[in-house]
Amino acid sequence: MTVRAQGEHRVAAGEVDGSTTTAGPRERPELFQVRFHGRGGQGVVTAAELLSVAAFLQGRFAQAFPSFGSERAGAPVVAFCRISGTEIRTHAPVDAPDAVVVQDATLLHQVDLFNGLGSEGYLLVNTTHGLDDMGLGGLADRLHRERLVTVPATDLALEYLGRPVPNVVLLGGLAALCGVVSLDSVVAAVHERFAGAVADGNAAAATEAYRLVTAEAKTANKEAAARA
Amino acid sequence: MLSQLEGSRAVAGAVVCCRPQVVCAYPITPQTHIVEAIGASVKSRQLKHCRFINVESEFAAMSVAIGASATGARAYTATASQGLLFMIEAVYNAAGLGLPVVMTLANRAIGAPINIWNDHSDAMAVRDSGWVMLFAEDNQTATDLHVQAFRLAEELSLPVMVCVDGYVLTHATERVDVPTQEQVDAFLPPYKPRQVLDPADPVSIGAMVGPEAFTEVRYLAHAKQLQALERIGEVAGEFAEGFGRHSGGLVSTYHVEDAEVVIVALGSVLGTIKDATDELRANGARVGVVGITSFRPFPLDVLREAIGDARKVVVVERAFSAGFGGVLSTDVGLAISDAKARLSTVVAGLGGRAVTEAGLIGVFEDALGDRLEALRFLDLDKDVVDRELARMAGTRRSGPSAENVLRDLGTVASGAL
Fold it and tell me: With contacts defined as CB-CB under 8 Å, which chain B residues touch A24?
């Protein structure tokens, strides 16, 4: 994929909060790291790549890479994306993600999805269920409740795209959840990679996920404020 | 043009701009994306006047490259790991004949045990083949080195191998300034072969040479490598003028001026080592890094100068020679043989094991505190090794070690997450 950088955009709110706590031994306040979990065929690697392209379009440095393995449809797959305001030199895996995206909820009790996710971390899960239904209610004890969000990304992909591929949809959700990239950049990255109905369907589904997650986060924020 | 793209695509884009006339390759992971992308460019006619030849093996890939190069065509191929071993006879021939083939080696471990992940065992297996061997630190360097590789190869009539860490670089999507066709055309003149199979002016290439002249012909190969030692830095300088950025050269240095401890390494681990260096420097530790870009020819003098007065030199390498120790370390040791510096080898990142910043900081700290032994296997699980040694000591038919170790660790499907 070849895309052109279009200069520095304003970084959305939320990024600074999410990036200062879990960034390894040295404070690198601008570094934001995302880990994607899914299964072969769900576009996990593409999700990380597109997130890096979206960040690049905002004038940021970004690095996406898969956790390398023998690729098989249905097998657990992990991919990473680092985003930073400065050049990224490391080529070590991400061990302390600021956000985790779970593309396939059937991985929940099979794979160590939350390994390294700090107390300031974000979690986005593709499911039609709530966190409690999936036995994840306890996560709210160690993470901010308003940073734990579910979105029915497969349903949205089926509705807008006609295919059960949730990767791009979740990028829309991630943009809403932690603001590390803007929805506009996600949509632009999608149009760089795909064409025609696939691009349009993915962009529309991502936009809808962005709307849903924004609404869910708002509700959670209100609840948090009420509790406080 | 500044782009965000996969390393393999960036390398392929640079190779396409070099206008190869014959590209022949056999697929092997993690090289595949590179030749796929070049193949697509041939098919779409973005790359014109190029034959993409699907060959039946790596041995055929290098043989076709040799044949093409001997007829005056600019020839390119790519491989990795066992693929390189399978073509090794032809690899030596390309160098011995002085044919300027350019090859990408997407570095990958060699079996057994079979392993598709990154290390430098493959490159080290052809260390003495006579090829110029350049190592890329990141995807920008990987991209730029390919452009310089064709220029060097054709000037010197020597094959050039560009080593790019498999997966770690080939499959990483990063920001890369991809050379434009105009830039490459201005930098890389059309290939003028020193020797060519031309029916109008017939010669034979590949004479049998007996004891009367073998030493002299082989010495000429060494002389050409010494010419490369001069030209690599100059070509990097000319590249910088044309492309506006520095890439390549013999070595790269980072904070070596006053360094007490210097780490020497090849390839993509250098970025992580630089991060570790910053971390330690922030606390006042005097540490530095030397990256070797040109592994063959080996820059003994430049390396010695770069290491300077460091009292401890640590070679971090992704390969080792069983029964001996470091491979790169031997060469580094020769470079500093007159210095007072003590040398340690740290074998790290074998078969795709992650080399972390924390692990490297530990190496630096142990070197600073004189706790680093002459040979260390970073993150080696000694307990697992000892248990297998005990099984072997306990019973004659202890079985295959790889399977025993995986069973010991409870691994169901190796590499799965």
Answer: 357-358
Check whether residue B179 and residue B304 sit in a common domain.
Answer: no
Residues of A near B (CB-CB distance < 8 A)? 1-5, 24-26, 48-49, 52-53, 56-57, 61-70, 75-78, 88-93, 95, 111
Whole-model pTM: value is 0.93
Give the ipTM of the model, two decimals please: 0.93
Shortest distance between the Cα of A217 and any Cα of chain B, in A, equals 30
Neighbours of B234 (CB within 10 A): 11
Sheet holding B102-107, edge to edge: B51-54, B22-25, B75-79, B102-107, B160-165, B132-135, B294-296
Query: Which among A22, A46, A68 is the top mutation candidate for probing chain B, defined by the most B β-carbons within 10 Å of its own β-carbon?
Result: A68
Query: In sequence order, what are the residues at sequence separation of 6 or more whose Cβ sits closer than 8 angstroms to the Cβ of residue B349?
Result: B118, B119, B269, B318, B355, B378
Residue B283 sits in a domain whose CATH number is 3.40.50.920
| Full residue range of the structural domain in which residue B141 is found | 2-243
Q: List % helix, strand, coil for chain A (3-state, nearest 5).
A: 40, 15, 45
The per-residue pLDDT of chain B, averaged, comes to 96
Question: Are A53 and B4 in contact (CB < 8 Å)?
Answer: yes
- Please name the fold of domain A3-9+24-126+141-227: Pyruvate-ferredoxin Oxidoreductase; domain 3 (3.40.920)
Do B223 and B328 lie in a common domain?
Answer: no
B210 and B275 part of one domain? no
Tens of pLDDT, residue by residue over A55-74, are 999 999 999 999 866 667 88
> What CATH number corresponds to the domain at position B52?
3.40.50.970
B344-398 pLDDT per residue, tens: 999 999 999 999 999 999 999 999 999 999 999 999 999 999 999 999 999 999 9
Interface residue of B1, B2, B3, B4 to substitute, partner A, most A CBs within 10 Å: B4
Cis peptide before B112 (omega within 30 of 0): yes
Same domain for B64 and B209, yes or no, is: yes
